[in-house]
Write a structure and sequence with these properties.
Blueprint (H helix, E strand, L loop, with lengths): L15 E5 L6 E2 L2 E2 L3 H15 L3 E5 L19 H8 L4 E3 L4 H9 L6 E4 L6 H4 L3 H8 L4 E4 L21 E3 L1 H14 L6 E5 L5 H10 L5 E4 L1 H10 L14 H13 L3 E3 L3 E5 L8 E5 L8 E5 L1 H12 L3 E5 L12 H16 L3 E5 L1 H9 L8 E3 L3 H7 L5 H4 L5
Parallel strand pairs: 1-4, 1-7, 4-6, 5-6, 7-8, 9-10, 9-15, 10-11, 15-16, 16-17
Antiparallel strand pairs: 2-3, 12-13, 12-14
This protein binds adenosine-5'-diphosphate and 1,3-bisphosphoglyceric acid (X15).
């Protein structure tokens, strides 16, 4: 990769290296439920530490709206990070200012310090230059290893690279190399599967994605929003109703681009969002006013199975249902199984990514069978669109 500096180009011994990581990991009952992102980040941190750097880890965690709160504190991932790097990681109560500086000053070269959630400051998402400078003031060098957050032009992913010598971390390098190898010239037909809960932030990319793929299968809250936009009553389901106009525009774009849009035929609905909740299968237009579509139903699984049989390449981000609570994992498990089987038989190239998607595929027991699993979801889809991701662009050699 000649376009970027990597860790090989940095002299890190005795330096303080700021590493932008993506520790936005799936959580259940206050514990990290999937450590993939942490495990893939760990080699970068241990390499820098072994080379004699003080390693300062920066990350966002969740989407806090009103400043600091315990649920979105990166303290929640400190133990998992320490376990992954095989050493006790120190913690700084803030990502800028005196508290951050004190935490960094308190450790020796070779140590790793995790700073508090960058999104506890509103300036982070505004990519405020003064805030980026405050972050940069904490270190000598900047390494971005958060490919999965590289689609965000935020102070810690983009801004800080303007003020320090910058390089790509090992995970960033590996993701770009693997995705380029797998998907530079994808064999057609290409099918995209998009589900999950992040609706408004992923709608923009769908408008471009439908121009690049031959089929787009929707599940999760994304499918509910599109069905609502078509006039279907989705009851109490996860749905961003104010996105209906944008969903309709994407449907038009898909039609014009000859991209076949595949919406669920049926759902498994329940009145409660909890494991084992009483549930029933209903047609897509049969959701009761007090019911939530928590998974795609068996007819949808069959329909997607038939459609995906015609694909040569599948890209996937976002589970088709609330896979964390059984039995609402069945649709995701079944479709993941079909994709994995065809990949193993050699008829399909499959690439999936996203914090929760990785967790869902591991839960389905098919993680090893996909051609490539990225730690990134939205960033991977934006990369696939051919977009210059701000976090990657900022690392390009000047
Ligand atoms: N029908 C649904 N109703 C509520 N939540 C859903 C539904 N389908 C999927 N989800 C939720 O979507 C979340 C994952 O979405 P998202 O963050 O977009 O995926 P990723 O992290 O892989 O990019 C999961 O926590 C899952 O429970
Ligand atoms: O989990 C992430 O993205 P993903 O859900 O697309 O995998 C990244 O940490 C980005 O998080 P954000 O979508 O809140 O900016």
């Amino acid at each position: 990769m000649t376009e970027f500096n990597t860790i090989d180009d940095l002299d890190v011994n005795g330096k303080t290296v700021l590493v932008r990581a993506d520790l936005n990991v799936p959580m259940q009952d206050g514990k990290v439920s999937d450590t993939t992102r942490i495990d893939r980040l760990a080699p970068t941190l241990t390499e820098l530490a072994k080379k004699g750097a003080k390693v300062v880890v920066l990350s966002h965690f969740g989407r806090p709206k009103n400043g600091p709160d315990a649920k979105n504190s990166l303290r929640n991932v400190l133990d998992a990070l320490s376990a992954a790097v095989g050493q006790t990681v120190a913690f700084g109560e803030d990502c800028v200012g005196d508290k951050a500086k004190a935490a960094i000053d308190g450790v020796q070269p070779g140590a790793i310090v995790l700073l508090e959630n960058t999104r506890f400051h509103a300036e982070e998402e505004k990519n405020d230059p003064a805030f980026a400078k405050q972050i940069a003031a904490l270190g000598d060098l900047y390494v971005n290893d958060a490919f999965s957050a590289a689609h965000r032009a935020h102070a810690s992913t983009e801004g800080v690279a303007q003020y320090l010598p910058a390089a790509a971390g090992r995970l960033m390098q590996a993701e770009l190399e693997a995705l380029t190898k797998a998907l530079e010239k994808p064999e057609r037909p290409v099918a995209a599967v998009v589900g999950g809960a992040k609706i408004s932030t992923k709608l923009d990319l769908l408008g471009n994605l439908v121009k690049k793929v031959d089929m787009l299968a929707l599940g999760g809250g994304m499918a509910n929003t599109f069905l609502y936009a078509q006039g279907v009553d989705v009851g109490a389901s996860l749905c961003e109703k104010d996105m209906a106009d944008q969903a309709r525009a994407i449907m038009e774009t898909a039609k014009a681009a000859n991209c076949e849009l595949l919406l669920p035929k049926d759902f498994i609905v329940a009145k409660e969002f909890k494991a084992g909740a009483a549930n029933r299968a209903v047609p897509a237009d049969g959701i009761g006013a007090d019911e939530m579509a928590l998974d795609v139903g068996p007819k949808t699984v069959e329909f997607l199975g038939l459609k995906l049989q015609g694909a040569k390449t599948v890209v996937w981000n976002g589970p088709l249902g609330a896979f964390e609570i059984q039995p609402f994992d069945a649709g995701t498990n079944a479709v993941a199984g079909l994709v994995a089987e065809r990949t193993s038989e050699g008829g399909l190239l499959s690439v999936a990514g996203g914090g929760d998607t990785v967790s869902a595929l591991a839960h389905a027991g098919v993680e090893e069978k996909f051609t490539y699993i990225s730690a990134a979801g939205g960033a991977f889809l934006e990369w696939l669109e051919g977009k210059d991701l701000p976090g990657v662009a900022a690392l390009k050699k000047k």
